[in-house]
Amino acid sequence: MNKFQSWLMANKNLLITSVVMCQVLVLSIGIINFPYIDDTGRQIDGNTDFARSYSRWGSEIGSWLVQGSRHLTDMGLWTHILSGFIVSVTGIIIVYSFHKKLSLLALTAAMLVGFNPWFLQNLSFRFDSPYMSLSLLFSVLPFLFWNKNKVLFLVISILSIFLMCNTYQASSGIYVVMVLALSLKQLLDNQSFIAVLKKAIVAMISYISAMFLYLIETKFNPEIATRGGMTTIASVKDIPKTILVNSQMYLSKITEQSTKLWILLFFILVIFFVLSTVLNAKVSPVKSFLYAVLFLFLGSILSYGVFLIFPEKLLLISPRYGYGFSFFCSFNYHAYFGKYF
């Protein structure tokens, strides 16, 4: 039995509790039985349309397997149950990746990755939600191998990121922020800067390689070209300007969509995170403070993922394109603060 399996068995009661909590939350949405946006069309004609319209072959093939057919029918609460289970597994992997200590608070923080105001829109889809949830799982799956052989981590990362793109591309910032958070954790534990940098470079190579493979895949789909700015990447010379404009829009829109209470809680989390980092790190206070600030700056922006280089401001179209920020908030807890609570 490997370490992960042993950890699962040792903490099975808490893990079962987290799965049940996820099911209660997701079923409270499912029992409304409301066909949400694309659901109406799928109920009427039964078409999957994931691959042709969105180049999401993972969702396409996944829907055939779940449905047992290439013609979709409404499966009631089953898709929501499946989505809740996937989100709970995603949270469990996050907790295990950051620290072996398990608590109900840690699991609750991990559940924010799926049960936050931005991703709740995704969970409302009766047909699409399991595959959108899978994109979360694929984004964090490689980190079970973060401390393993670099080649193994590289290969699994490329495969997982490619599958993430083929299920829901809005999750593209999750892998990046998790690399930043785990790198921060190792730096604060006084691990070699060069060793941490090498691992981050391996992750970067994995990410770029997978995105390049997915870009090639989309070139074989003529439908993508008809979707306008939603699938268009900025030209090379315009990328810096596009990143700057999208970063400002992203953080501004997230703030606008948040209540004053949420904003207050976020700043309290950030303050506790920085204080915990400076007071408990195994490196000097100056270093730990700089590392924490750099993580907060990069993580908050890069959580938007590849949409940073899209001329189309997707978050202005729909809030669900901004759920990467909730991962950033959750990782604030897990990266260092969470090891004490």
From TrEMBL:
InterPro entries: Glucos_trans_II. The chain crosses the membrane at residues 12-32, 77-95, 102-119, 131-146, 153-181, 193-216, 261-283, 289-310. The gene is pcfV. It comes from Enterococcus faecalis (Streptococcus faecalis). This is PcfV. Keywords: Membrane, Plasmid, Transmembrane, Transmembrane helix. Pfam families: Glucos_trans_II.
